[in-house]
Amino acid sequence: MTSPTPGTARPSSGSPPSGQGRGRKPFVRTVSKTGWWLKHPRYMRYMSREVTCIFIGAFALLMLCAVERLSKGQAAYESFMATLQQPLGVVGLLLVLAFALHNATSWFNVTPKALPVQIGEAFLAGKYIVGAHYAVWIVATLVVVFFAGVL
Amino acid sequence: MSQLKRRMVQLEVLRYDPEKDSEPHFQKYEVECNEEWVVLDALNAVKESMDPTLAYRWSCHMAVCGSCGMMVNGEPKLSCHAFLRDYVGMVIRVEPLANFPIERDLVTVADDFIDKLKRVKPYLIPKDKKTIAEGEYKQTPAQLMKYRQFSMCINCMLCYAACPEYALQPQFLGPAAITLAHRYNQDSRDGGRDERQEVIATNEGVWECSFVGACSEVCPKAVDPAGALQQVKVASTLDWFKEHLLPGGTP
Questions:
Q1: How much is the ipTM here?
Q2: Which of A2, A19, A40 is the closest to B111 by Cβ?
Q3: B77: which DSSP letter?
């Protein structure tokens, strides 16, 4: 079995860096600029987190549209909201919600790496740092829901 | 002494002879191994009894020296720490560490990493220089714990082989070099942070990292380079705010 590894062998010339001295011919393997993330589940997990920004960005634009409609008066705004409440609109919003939840949870779960809390010689267990983020999230959600008049 | 269990292990090893080959190719070996062996032992058995031309690096055989890093079934591993019992029923495919040029067979060119390591000054730059007569630089256990985890790096380069940012942007300083800079920046005895920040708080430094986290997943010493890099980002951002927003800063 001989599946060739794509790349290039670089014949030595002069004394360039990275191992290209006399008689050396290092072989440089190429990396696919578009397909690299399909090579390992951990890269796919990473891309699943990164792709959420597209949906969150789209939702932010939708909110801007809502504000623009609101500026045009009550009828324009209610018509916009009615469109969003169509089955396609609801499916789209549920999709955005799913990606937003994935975005929030995937970032919350790695916060202990960025924000370690040292107490004396020990470090606070990551679950407390993650838990604090979830707690703030729940409180913030309740506040928003309260001001939205749902509670 | 009880009889050690032996079995035949199939290896596919990437071979590359710069004097003969235009590109690497896989070569198959079937070698009798002890069940307790690691991939490095299997390679040693190949070299000793089947093919003395096989080239690879190794030294300590105990996950300390960091020289036997290879791709084992697509995963960056220390070959002295990749147990054959974890690959039962599989063909074990061994390749040189990803993202580094291949010098010969499983030997890679590590010059790029060594150059980057030098650039971050991974050594103590004392805050206050003392003479020997003035005594040692003292440190409390809590001050030690602040950086101890990051001092466990053995420069094995597995994190570079796992890092897609380094694969796509070779100018990226990379996980281990930045982690070692952070290790010294966190040391209470050190005064070299400003010098290192010039190198690591840059686009080619920590801001090239998009927090894939693969470096920490493959690290054989649980150093958590991804954590170190995020902490450098937080500290560098605070530096920027102090410099630009607080009175007395120098924008």
A1: 0.89
A2: A19
A3: E
CA nearest to B212, candidates A56, A112, A130, A44: A44
pLDDT at B251 over 80: no
Q: CB of A13 within 8 Å of any CB in chain B?
A: no
Interface check for B12 against chain A (CB to CB < 8 A): the answer is: yes
How far apart are the C-alpha atoms of A43 and A36, rounded to whole Å? 8
Domain boundaries defined on chain B: 6-108, 111-245
| B205 token code pair | 């430094």
| A16 to chain B: closest CA residue | B111
Contacts of A5 in chain B (CB under 8 A): 14, 23-24, 95
Kindly state whether B141 is in contact with chain A, defined as any CB-CB distance less than 8 angstroms: yes
Asked whether the beta carbons of B139 and B188 are under 8 A apart, the reply is: yes
In this structure, the dihedral spanned by the alpha carbons of residues B68, B69, B71 and B72, taken in order and rounded to 10 degrees, is: 60
Which architecture does CATH list for B6-108? Answer: Roll (3.10)
Question: What residue of A is the nearest CA neighbor of B231?
Answer: A114
- In sequence order, what are the residues at sequence separation of 6 or more whose Cβ sits closer than 8 angstroms to the Cβ of residue B22? A9
Ramachandran region of residue B204, left (φ > 0), alpha (ψ -120 to 50) or beta? alpha
Task: For chain A, positions 70-109, list CB contacts with chain B under 8 A.
Answer: none
Nearest CA in chain B to A113: B227
Query: From start to end of chain A, where are the E strands?
Result: 7-9, 27-29, 118-119, 122-123
Mean pLDDT score, B9-13? 97
**CATH 3.10.450.40 applies to domain B111-245:** no
Looking at residue A5, its pLDDT comes to 67
pTM for this prediction = 0.90
Per-residue pLDDT of B41-72, as tens digits, reads 999 999 999 999 999 999 999 999 999 999 99
Residue A16 has pLDDT above 70, yes or no: no
Domain boundaries, chain A: 35-91, 109-151
Q: How far is CA B29 from the centre of its chain?
A: 28
Q: Testing the interface with A: which of B212, B232, B236 to mutate, by most A Cβ within 10 A? A: B212
Contact A114 B21 (CB under 8 A): no
Residue B95, strand partner residues: B71
* Section A27-54 average pLDDT: 95
Angle, in degrees to the nearest 10, between helices B175-185 and B141-148: 170
Q: Specify whether the CB–CB gap between B218 and B159 falls below 8 A.
A: yes
